[in-house]
């Protein structure tokens, strides 16, 4: 009986030889990612009548805990959470606790190869789905579910139906992952993969860098997906080389596996895409919105805070000036990405152009640090443009790729980066 | 036991409502961890699409929402608020995956029903029968079949949420730590 990648991973984790979409199963977890909101898990457990919080961690080597999301602490609440996290990391004798040199949790998970091909990993954040770029079945859950998962190392799952997205053509020399996902969301809706597992396939995949793939898997949740996975190939192998000694067991779909939907997209000449307020799926050809003036431009987050995203920005900014009406904020996704950027001299170029090079973290994604006032307009290569995400519900957030953001920051208005890339 | 419900409809007939709209970041960041009643957030829930909900909602109400409700961020206040308000259930045309999981984990029954926002109007009195798995409009005629929850989900809802299930299992398997 043939199975999809999701069916195979969940069957293995449930100790079954076969599974079909729609079944409910209890699965053993290969890892759990939790960040500062682990304190919410702890609090829920106390409220439920466990005075010390969770009685145990199922495996101290498989809970990846981070003082992350708002670091350095942005208020007294996050500072207090940091104190408690340090205490809990010792109480549970966690092997993997990231504190003073932390970056965005999801980048930390892949930088340190805590999510591997074929594994089933959950995290208390919707963008945990990003590890799918490493052929890992990963998905986000809430803090309450996480309490059960962390104590017993297992959790219930509904086996998702799968959708296959076949990419043909060749990727350009600049990051295109964002544009691909914006295009798909605009064409098929922000719920086209609701409760489903996406499998990216096709001849163009081998031309997509790991950084592109992380962007695409990350945005799987923006179209409703539970998993958003790539296969395992030379690029995956190269990325993981030297990061782990654990065995790597890739999973591929059977050739006659069954899909709820199949889509095909030729990425060769895909134009830059823009999502207008307030939805990831409100996609417009860039020509239609070009000229829209902006006050803030951001590049970062688990969607677009990796080296290639920042390198393309630096390439565009080199020898140019950011428009005087625009605040350009660039934040690397992690400590390791920060170092990569430093070694390549990127912060110097960005600063010379009048942009800001910020610390690694989620701040530029609106979570805590890129607030907009009523009436302000932001073009951002981060995760989402939902109303109110960056503060005021009267602000306008547009989404675009990092090249689009960098060139628009120079121009002071939304502009087509092919003007300088071709 | 999960019991039958009868209540007044509060209808949000808009698709793709995000958790950023349900629970805006602006009113979450500085709130202390010991604020189970969400006092800061509460007046601002869903305000971008419908102002004044906090004054309108009464315990026992049943929310009826559009497609892909609760998409985006995993934030739990987007589910907790319904418990704080005393809402009995949320009926969506479809729910975003994590929002649905969070609802079940919190012990909030979340039903999915195609065309729910067409079958029920604001203020209608409706009844949900979880034995027969039917939902009925008592204000105007009309009823529809609901998909029964699978045993896994029923077990969590009947325990009052997954933390209660966790506590039961800890007491059974690890008596020393409970």
Explain this structure to me?
- The complex is a heterodimer of chains A (422) and B (178).
- Chain A folds into two domains: 261 residues, 2-Layer Sandwich (Aconitase, domain 3); 149 residues, 2-Layer Sandwich (Aconitase, domain 3).
- Chain A is α/β, with parallel strands linked by helices and 422 residues long.
- In chain A, the strands form five sheets. Chain A has a five-stranded parallel β-sheet, sandwiched between helices. Chain A has a five-stranded parallel β-sheet with strand order 16-15-14-17-18.
- By secondary structure, chain B is of the alpha/beta class.
- Chain B has a seven-stranded mixed β-sheet with strand order 4-3-2-1-5-6-7.
- Chain B has one domain: Aconitase, domain 4 (Alpha-Beta Barrel), CATH 3.20.19.
- The longest helix of chain B has 12 residues.
- Chain B is globular, with a radius of gyration of 16 Å.
- Classes of the chains: A alpha/beta (422), B alpha/beta (178).
- Chains A and B meet through helix 2, helix 3 and helix 5 of A and helix 4, helix 6 and helix 7 of B.
Radius of gyration of chain B, taken over Cα atoms and rounded to an integer in Å: 16 Å
**CATH class of the largest domain in chain A, anyone?**
Alpha Beta
Beta-strand share of residues of chain A:
15-25%
CATH fold annotation of chain B: Aconitase, domain 4
Overall residue-averaged pLDDT value of chain B: 94
Unreliable runs of chain A: none
Q: What is the general shape of chain A?
A: globular
Give the class of chain B from helix and strand content and strand pairing.
alpha/beta
- DSSP E strands of chain A, number: 18
Largest sheet properties of chain B: 7 strands, mixed
State the domain count of chain A. 2
Number of domains of chain B: 1
